[in-house]
Amino acid sequence: MTRGEIYATDAEKLAVAAAEARAGADEGGIPIGAALFASDGTLLGSGHNRRVQDGDAAMHAETNAFHNAGRQRSYRDTVMVTTLSPCWYCSGLVRQFGIGRVVVGDDRSFLGGQDWLAENGVEVTVVNDPVLIAMMGEFIHEHPALWNEDIGED
């Protein structure tokens, strides 16, 4: 995963996000990864959920990828690829900056604001990759308190 490298297919893009999710898990964090791409497939930035590692409640995978992409003149032609359906916070980021497309690796473990995004003109593609579903399911089963903290549940 090198910033500036081109990833042609959704599967290649999702592999970048999945590698980030595994990195987060290896660090003892929540296994969610994301990456932001230009319309031609150029990787602008990638990241993973760092809430545990950084002690920062705002550092979700999508916000970490967005942060690592740096300033862009416009986000209208960008694609956010995420291993898990974006929560309302991250869905708000997509809408605020006009990201035009979102690719979701798993919306069975958690369903965030992706329907709201689609209703408001964002192109949403759901993959439901069995490996990502299994990884998230295992994490939720093994760490229910941490998962509930991440999604704002008591």
UniProtKB/TrEMBL annotation:
Its cofactor is Zn(2+). Coiled coil: none annotated. One of its GO terms (biological process) is pyrimidine-containing compound metabolic process. Residues 8-124 form the CMP/dCMP-type deaminase domain. It is found in: Cytoplasm. The keyword Metal-binding applies. Pathway: Pyrimidine metabolism. Its main location: cytoplasm. SUPFAM superfamilies: Cytidine deaminase-like (SSF53927). It holds the Pfam family dCMP_cyt_deam_1. Keywords: Cytoplasm, Hydrolase, Metal-binding, Zinc. InterPro entries: CMP_dCMP_dom (IPR002125), Cytidine_deaminase-like (IPR016193). One of its GO terms (molecular function) is metal ion binding. Homodimer. This is Nucleoside deaminase. It comes from Lacisediminihabitans profunda.
